[in-house]
Specification:
By secondary structure, the protein is an alpha/beta fold. Helix content is 12%, strand content 29%. It is globular, with a radius of gyration of 16 Å.
Amino acid sequence: MLSGVWIYVRFASFLPSNHLRKLALRCLGAKIAKGVVIYSGFNVIHPWNLKIRRGCIIGHNCILDCRAPVTICENVNLSTEVAIWTAQHDPQSATFDVEYGPVTVEERAWLSFRATVLPGVTIHEGAVLAAHAVATKDIPPYSIAGGIPARVIGKRNAALTYELTGFPYMHMI
């Protein structure tokens, strides 16, 4: 059953239309609001645990592991090849047990190129996770975090008002 879902999702990720890609994920139970743009090549594990609110952009080749719930709030930008993981092995477990934790990305957060978010982490409102950074714990609101593991390296303007819908964010893909 799950291998059939995986094949369906991978096929759907290369459909030539943003609208068809979103429809395919919705057919598997993903909750995707209007005004969301999902670029091609994505991989979504257990899409029925995915919720994406309005005005979000999901870049090329993103991995969204939704074995636990993943919530992406309004006006979030996930750049190309971002990976969100909700399950990982416990390195201290004698039996290599798996640990699960939901991930939330709050309003107007930006995860840059190849950023990684690990299970149980919240990227708070307006935060930026720099390119190649790995978030192993929550990233505070309006902070800029980078490195492995990610740590706060700067502050972001807290007076954000942008909406990732309409011109110039209207993506016709």
